[in-house]
Design goal:
By secondary structure, this protein is α+β, with helices and mostly antiparallel strands. Helix content is about 30%, strand content about 25%. The structure holds adenosine-5'-triphosphate.
Length: about 325
């Protein structure tokens, strides 16, 4: 870990002051070098107080999102341990796909403060303004059949909800709109985009991208009625880096549960409890037909079980359709 990350961690984990002497001895560097790192942290936006004869103390860490901030908060073994950070990039999914092709390790995480070409499913765009939200993608190298990879979208949806609940408490009704959107108050808070590079029977790697509207207050007109953010819903800002770390922690655990059975058996109950479409009439918008049905829940493969108007039960594969509420977006 880089010295800046280590010093940040030390300051965070210490209640009182940490002396310049102590830091310089611990890292084997000069007092001037320590002071330079402290200055860099202040430039990044941390309020680090320096008191003569006492040392340094971190008063507040605002919504800083840097590689060091992320690394200092990560408690995982592999998820988000290798971090690629961008102030601006085209799309974190593209960055992770490239990293995957170049041999980056399982769990590599790309995070950007802004995306110039944020993407949704089927060529749609994901609005990605600077300084307010989370755009991240993770590289996974699962040793499973390629047709099982779409379940990873559902695993990630669960991670995102549980990570958010950990950061803001679970008194707000955050739900999943199958298969890839996170909803609060009937509006879209986050979206997930999973892409795979594979052979016929072998996965090279999977990229799971997540966009979370964290502190956004204004949305473009086209989505103003359907999009929302944590800030809008909670009435206060939420720090991005700890939320990313929380999602990575949930990912590590839920992904390992997924791998035990290579399906969603171990996560099914928690997923269905969060499912906004559960026990609701929905409109299934497919490539060939659009029809109304009653959604029952997902099964262990991640398909949505619906009852059609003639009473027949059908299972819907996520790749094929969009699902809408009969009267609105959810
Ligand atoms: P839908 O949610 O309409 O069923 P989808 O799940 O396929 O479709 P995604 O690919 O997840 O949609 O996301 C792209 C769509 O989300 C865009 O077409 C736009 O309507 C909406 N969108 C784009 N940016 C944002 C954002 N930052 N927050 C919320 N919604 C957004």
């Amino acid at each position: 870990m880089k010295m800046k990350t280590e010093i940040l961690k030390l300051l965070r984990e210490t209640d009182g002051y940490v002396s310049g002497q102590q830091i310089s001895e611990q890292f084997g560097v000069s007092r001037t070098a320590v002071w330079k790192v402290i200055r860099q942290l202040q430039d990044d936006g941390y309020q680090v107080e320096a008191v003569r004869n006492k040392g340094y103390h971190i008063v507040d860490s605002p919504d800083v999102m840097t590689k060091e901030e992320l690394a200092s908060l990560m408690k995982t073994r592999w998820a988000g341990r290798n971090i690629l950070y961008y102030d601006v990039t085209d799309s974190t999914n593209l960055r992770i796909k490239q990293a995957g092709d170049e041999g980056a390790p399982h769990g590599t995480l790309a995070v950007a403060d802004r995306q110039t070409a944020g993407r949704g499913r089927r060529g749609r765009t994901w609005e990605s303004p600077a300084g307010s939200s989370i755009y991240m993608s993770i590289l996974l190298r699962p040793e499973i059949a390629p047709n099982k990879a779409s379940m990873l979208t559902l695993v990630m949806a669960l991670n995102v909800v549980e990570g958010i609940q950990e950061c803001i408490g679970n008194d707000r009704d955050i739900q999943i709109k199958w298969p890839n959107d996170i909803i609060i108050n009937g509006k879209k808070l986050a979206g997930i985009l999973t892409e795979m590079s594979s052979q016929i029977d072998y996965i090279n790697h999977v990229t799971v991208g997540v966009g979370i509207n964290v502190n956004t207050t204004d949305f473009p007109e086209e989505i103003a009625q359907t999009a929302t953010s944590l800030r809008i819903e909670c009435g206060h800002t939420v720090k991005r880096a700890p939320l990313i770390a929380a999602v990575m922690e949930r990912l590590e655990e839920n992904y390992e549960t997924f791998l035990e059975t290579e399906d969603l058996s171990g996560l099914l109950d928690r997923y269905n409890a969060l499912l906004v479409n559960c026990d609701r009439d929905v409109q299934i918008i497919g490539a060939k037909e659009t029809y109304q049905a009653h959604a029952i829940g997902i099964d262990h493969t991640g398909e949505l079980i619906v009852r059609r108007e003639d009473g027949s039960i059908e299972k819907i594969n996520a790749g094929e359709v969009s699902v809408r509420g009969v009267y609105g977006y959810t």
